[in-house]
Model the fold of this input.
Amino acid sequence: MNPPVPTGPRDPGDAWVELPDGRRFWGRFGAAGLLLVDPDDRVLLQHRAVWSHFGGTWGLPGGARHEGEDAVTAAVRESAEEAGIPEHDVRVVAASVLDLEAWSYTTVLARSATHFDAEATDAESIELGWVPRAEVTGYPLHPGLAASWERLAPVFDAVPTVVVDAANVVGSRPDGWWRDRTGANSRLVERLAALAAAGLPGAELGLDVDRVWPAFEVVVEGQARGIRAPHLPVRFGALTVVDAPHDGDSTIAERAATLARPLVVTADRGLIERVPDAAVRGPSWLLGLLDAV
Done:
């Protein structure tokens, strides 16, 4: 069966790329797909039209990237076009890149803030369905998804919430912060917002993905209370500023105790003893990431 004849303007990215070994892949500028999980831990799968590449299998909504378009934007755009996903509900978790030099495919892992009824909005899908994560391997999967599923599925549970001891991080560099504690904390928050939006290499968190976007909570105390987090792009990053009502250490310990996978950034030995179940990184680790943004 042949694909339907396209109507309207055709994007330059909508073309085949042939590798030296004869394999062909769709997307002149590469392609991207969205591995989306809803609040009930169900994965959105696309039953691919029979005329498509590996037609009849179940894969991820997505498609060819436009020229100059980043992979995350492409994955969300294509999924909105094919499955009607509400773009404003998508929060990116991680990205994994298959790089074949002449062509690349990026799997964008994301969570949806709400459950929604996905609908096939073009001819590329036979149907769309929400599948419990534990049941995904029971479907005849697209070979690319089948090859990467066991590696990518655990990432959703492995991305931590990074809780930042602002006073300890600010105090780790003798840059005059003691003359203006509020200003120093505000600058830290602004830099953390940039990092939250840009993400960080997955290897920094021991994850086998190229990039990851953890949520950040920065705890401020004393004169620094009242700082507000800058506006972040809708799909990228999460940063919350938490005002400690008394001492910052107690608030950090309380927050860490409520989180499923906390990572506390501090060098305070007393605080470290109060968060025995949290992973801990020192201020130099965080500052190195901030300097790289």
Remarks:
- The first helix runs from residue 71 to 83.
- Residues 13 and 28 are 5 Å apart (CA to CA).
